[in-house]
Design a protein that fits this description.
Length: about 300
């Protein structure tokens, strides 16, 4: 028997697909893209909001997908197990410091956001939403990761950075600046960097290990109009490091070992591929230049 297509369901899925592609949009833009009148779009968004599948940004008022959408797919590819262990601790962290926190994994020579508390924070920055990918050297998450990843993996990453830069007819970064960044990250246990666009937000990030394997990085993002670099470093580094320790301890406990095992294996796989592959991601170094990295 051939069933009739459920039009409202199909429309809702089209809206989800569009938001997944653009990461955030206003109702008028959604309507234009999927070919629906504005009242219909509002009804669909309201239904998705009640199902905890979308939320509206406090500042931009754009509608974005919640982690609930990613949970529908399941599997290790979404790092669901890692997120499940880290999420309540990240919520505690945001409650303590007010500013939002993000969790990212190394993927395709970039940092992929797999969890965020931006939608829960009273001070949302809308930087680092779930599903976004950031160039490795242009975010604190990437700097924390490269500062603590195995030397062989780091050498492979740096080699690809140079290869990518050569393809763009010029040096993309200073090796001296990169070495200073790595040394500072190892010395402090965290990395700090200004988020894009410049001048609005900064973030501080720490690496996250499970049984000696680097699997992710976690940050706190704040607006420079409210906290200076020095204030952010002083006020946020302690709570972030303590939250990281809680997550690592939780993942290392025998009761949680199976919870994280898939994600640890996936992290090892990504690290191995990044070390062995000779390709360079075209999204790795957008707008990166000597001055930006030399300012680290």
């Amino acid at each position: 028997m051939k069933y009739k297509r459920i039009r409202s369901l199909a429309r809702g899925i089209e809206v989800i697909r569009y938001l997944n592609r653009v990461k955030g949009a206003h109702p008028v833009d959604i309507g234009k893209e999927v070919g629906l009148p504005r009242p219909t779009v509002h009804r669909i968004l309201q239904a998705l909001k009640e199902l905890d599948l979308v939320y509206q940004g406090a500042s931009s008022r754009e509608f974005r997908l919640t982690p609930g959408v990613r949970n529908l797919t399941g599997g290790a590819r979404n790092f669901h197990n890692l997120r499940a262990a880290a999420k309540p601790i990240m919520h505690d962290l945001t409650t303590e410091v007010i500013w939002p926190s993000g969790l990212a994994v190394f993927h395709d020579d970039a940092m992929l956001i797999v969890e965020s508390t931006d939608h829960l924070s009273p001070m949302p920055t809308e930087v680092g939403m779930i599903g976004q990918s950031f160039p490795l050297l242009l975010c604190s998450l990437g700097q924390a990761y490269i500062s603590h990843c195995p030397e062989t993996q780091r050498d492979g990453i740096i080699a690809r950075l140079h290869k990518d830069a050569a393809g763009n007819d010029g040096p993309a970064f200073s090796l001296d600046a990169l070495n200073r960044m790595i040394e500072a990250g190892n010395r402090n246990g965290y990395s700090i960097f200004g988020e894009m666009p410049p001048g609005r937000c900064m973030s501080i990030a720490v690496p996250l290990h499970v049984d000696g394997v680097l699997i992710a990085a976690m940050n706190i993002v704040w607006e420079v109009a409210d906290l200076t670099f020095e204030q952010g470093q002083k006020q946020l580094s302690g709570p972030l490091l303590r939250a990281r320790d809680r997550i690592e301890s939780k993942l290392s406990q025998s009761a949680c070992a199976s919870l994280a095992s898939r994600d640890v294996d996936a992290a090892r796989s990504y690290a191995t591929m990044s070390t062995q592959s000779g390709w360079a991601s075209p999204s790795l170094l957008p707008r990166l230049n000597v001055q930006e990295v030399s300012a680290i």
